[in-house]
Amino acid sequence: MTAPTTSATGATPSPAFRHELYAYEGESDFLRGAVSFIQDALSADETVLVAVGDEKQTMLRDALGGSEAGRQVSFVDTAALGRNPGRLIPAWQDWIAKSVSDGLPVRGISESPWESATPAERGELRYHEYLLNLTFAGSPAWWLLCPYDVTAVEPDALESARLCHPFQLADDRHGDNPAYADGPFRFEDLSPVGDGAHALDYRSGALASVRDTVAECATRWGLKGARLQELLVAVTEVAANSIRHAGGSGTLRIWADGTVLVCEFHDSGHIGDPLVGRARPRPDQIGGRGLWLVHQLCDLVQIRSTPEHGTTVRLSMALR
């Protein structure tokens, strides 16, 4: 297998985080780029973390074989994180921290499940790619390769991903990505509120009403047991944030969208931190744990916030 050549801009990992897109076509192209990336890392005595689907893991293990290289590569399990992209950044922070503590430079390969993701999940996966640049801007140097299969990823999604990656692997060369846009993230509009949504205005002293309304609707649509209890904790946290930080009131809408239960909260407040809820709270931190907890409990969390239009938080739980 011929390894890709490396341009002057990509001869070694950058002093900080190197976030690189790899648009490939089919399995053989994936293997060619990923295996050469791994082999280059191991030649430089770097540790490698791979977060890809089960089929790709099998392909890479077979390609690396029983060699010493194969035994030095760590395949990390993202399945335990569920489908919520909001849980990925702290997971990568944990994996990187452990590798850095071992004293070795780090490279990673991470392929998101674009093909099986819902439109809402794809939007949060795009935002995750953008937030990686903010999260690791001041971290110890490491290099993350993000493969995108052009035969499976929609063209619009691929073009959006190009905006979030400062570097790219293209034509067997590592280099700058001319499509990268170093600016504010542009969200897509949230999907319309579902037909027949139940609405509730709430204010201080009404958290019990929020929980009761959610419990009644969720039970009617089939969400029960531990999953329902987790949702009730999450909706209490979000409603309490509205009361505490957004003028003391908000509006809840709840509906079932196919196999997903959605709880949407809107208030007049503004969240200025793009990483809110996605960075693990420090042990000595006072406050700021509510949205972190919400991300751990819900299958998907979507936050849209501007000074002009206030804040909308959507919590989704699969009914199956």
Overview of this protein structure:
- Strands 1-8-7-2-6-5-3-4 form an 8-stranded mixed β-sheet, sandwiched between helices.
- The termini are far apart.
- It has helices at residues 26-43, 54-64, 68-72, 88-101, 119-135, 155-162, 207-220, 225-245, 290-297, and strands at 5-6, 17-24, 47-51, 73-75, 106-110, 142-149, 167-170, 173-176, 198-203, 249-257, 260-267, 300-306, 310-318.
- The longest helix is centred in the C-terminal third of the chain and has 21 residues, at 225-245.
- It is α/β, with parallel strands linked by helices.
- A hairpin with a 2-residue loop joins strand 7 (167-170) and strand 8.
Separation of termini?
44 Å
**Order of the strands making up the biggest sheet:** 1-8-7-2-6-5-3-4
Biggest sheet statistics: 8 strands, mixed
Q: Secondary-structure element order, as H and E?
A: EEHEHHEHEHEHEEEHHEEHEE
CATH class of the largest domain: Alpha Beta
